[in-house]
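Continuing the batch. This is chain 6 of the set; chains 1 through 5 are on the previous pages. Same settings as before, nothing changed between runs. Recording input and output for traceability.
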Amino acid sequence: FYAPWCPHCKKVIPHFTAAADAFKDDRKIACAAVDCVKDKNQDLCQQEAVKGYPTFHYYHYGKFTEKYD
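Output for chain 6:
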């Protein structure tokens, strides 16, 4: 979860992109980025209790396991 204006998010983009690219062929791992500034994503960001940016959520078989922010 990120905001385009966030300086910390801008710093992590190359690392996140590299990780997503490294796992792109692994069907067990999915990487996604959610822009919490966009109106269409605000409900999801509230539901996931995103308080700061960037925030990383880890899921195992669709169940939330860990948060890093």
